[in-house]
Amino acid sequence: MTILETHHLRKIYGAGETEVRALDGVDLSVEKGEFVAVVGTSGSGKSTLLHMLGGLDHPTSGTVTVDGRDLFSLKDEALTIFRRRKIGFVFQSYNLVPVLNVRENIVLPIQLDGGKPDESYVGEIIETLGLGSKLQNLPGNLSGGQQQRVAIARALVSKPAIILADEPTGNLDSVTSQDVMGLLKVTSEKFTQTIVMITHNEEIAQMADRIVRIEDGRIFPSGGTPGTVCAIPSPERNTPQSSSRDTRG
Fold first, then answer.
1. Distance between CA atoms of 74 and 85, rounded to whole angstroms?
2. 12: exposed, middle or buried (C-beta count within 10 Å: 0-12, 13-18, 19+)?
3. How far apart are CA 168 and CA 184, in angstroms?
4. Cα gap 153→172, rounded to integer Å
């Protein structure tokens, strides 16, 4: 089942000699439960793509469909509600609310939507991410890796159609990065959670199910010409275990 699909997606800034094609006709599809890494250098368009996939910015042309809905056919308020319910975000900078404790940060998206958390599911997420002993802590009292775990839990709690991760290990050391990636892999498999992650780190990208490469706003197949989705299966490896001990891209 296809959860995410883009069709001829373009984002153009400026005109004439100053024109910049941040995205230049991107066609991409992601299946339910798939963990996809979008890899590209700085300025390749990967951050712009992520913003389009999450409905955070509007394309110049083309479509983005998430869970059967064309994002940009929705009016602003409807798009905000859809995004809150169907799209989870994990950012490099965590974006936790500093005055809320860990548990309050995790359930915040559901409370903003006027709903009540599924306590059994919340408990399962907390256990999976090893956060049980940290629920009363404020974000400022957590390590970077622990804060990113909270951000992952927050992204999962509303059972979104897709999670978009923006350089989720960018502020972490190599050991903690591997731990966080292991947790993303575990949550993808355990909760059949679809994840699209952008990164410039080739080693990190290898932990995904599939790698998509983007340069100059275009998707490149391996060793071919631009315009086709690159589907490079990552090498098989043992899934790392979670440790409970503890403007254009």
1. 14
2. middle
3. 10
4. 17
CA dihedral of residues 164, 76, 81, 52 (deg, nearest 10): -10
- Pairing of β 69-70 and β 61-66: antiparallel
Q: Where are the domains of the chain?
A: 2-233
Q: What local confidence, expressed as pLDDT, does residue 191 receive? A: 94
Closest among 17, 4, 3, 42 to 167, alpha carbons compared: 42
What angle, 0 to 180 degrees and rounded to 10, lies between the N-to-C axes of helices 119-128 and 102-112? 140
Output the pTM of the full model. 0.85
Q: Which two structure tokens, joined as six digits, stand for 75?
A: 């009016």
Q: If you classify domain 2-233 with CATH, what class do you get?
A: alpha beta
pLDDT digits (tens, 9 = 90+) for 55-103: 999 999 999 999 999 999 999 999 999 999 999 999 989 999 999 999 9
pLDDT single digits (tens) 161-206 = 999 999 999 889 999 999 999 999 999 999 999 999 999 888 999 9
Give me the sheet containing 20-31, strands edge to edge.
20-31, 2-13, 61-66, 69-70
